[in-house]
Amino acid sequence: MARRRSNTLTEVELEFMRVVWAQGEVGTDDVDHALREKGRDLADGSIRKILSILRKKGYVTRRRKGRGFLYRARVAEGQAGRGMVSDLLGRMFGGSASLLVASLLDSKSITRDELAEIKQLIAKRESGSSKRQ
């Protein structure tokens, strides 16, 4: 059975995007350096391939500089996160936000501070004053 194509980020793609979001505009050498600092050693061809995949998925744009390219985020970090949550919500929880939240609360020990913050977010949403970041 063929693997389903997903527009959401894989773990490695997310690592790359964090580099792009942090630095603004990057070349393959910039990505290589940032990932090596985190203990990930990839060949130049692998870096170019993943950046190409990110471009095809619409997460980055590129512009020519000399013989290479510079890559810039096309999708903001918050927008990408919301997309990933939306994908998870649909695939795992059948679109039920309450099941997703219940699973989160059951699977992680939530601190009192986190719970208070969640309650504040719910209150803002209920009052209609929620602003997405």
Search tags:
single chain, 133 residues, mainly alpha, 6 helices, elongated
What is the name of the CATH superfamily of the largest domain? Winged helix-like DNA-binding domain superfamily/Winged helix DNA-binding domain
Topology, number of strands: 3
Number of domains: 2
Strand numbers in spatial order across the main sheet:
1-3-2
Shape: elongated
* Name of the CATH class of the largest domain: Mainly Alpha
Terminal-residue CA separation = 39 Å
Q: Which spans have pLDDT < 50 for at least 5 consecutive residues?
A: none
CATH architecture of the largest domain: Orthogonal Bundle
Continuous helix count:
6
- At CATH level 3, the topology of the largest domain is Arc Repressor Mutant, subunit A
Instruction: Tell me the β content.
Output: 5-15%
Order of secondary-structure elements: HEHHEEHHH
Structural class, by secondary structure, is mainly alpha
Main sheet overview = 3 strands, antiparallel
Describe the structure.
This protein is mainly α and 133 residues long. The chain folds into two domains: 11-73, Arc Repressor Mutant, subunit A (Orthogonal Bundle); 77-127, no CATH class. It has six helices and three strands. A three-stranded antiparallel sheet has the order 1-3-2. α1 crosses α2 and α1 (11-23) crosses α3 (44-56). It is elongated and about 50 Å long. The mean pLDDT is 90.
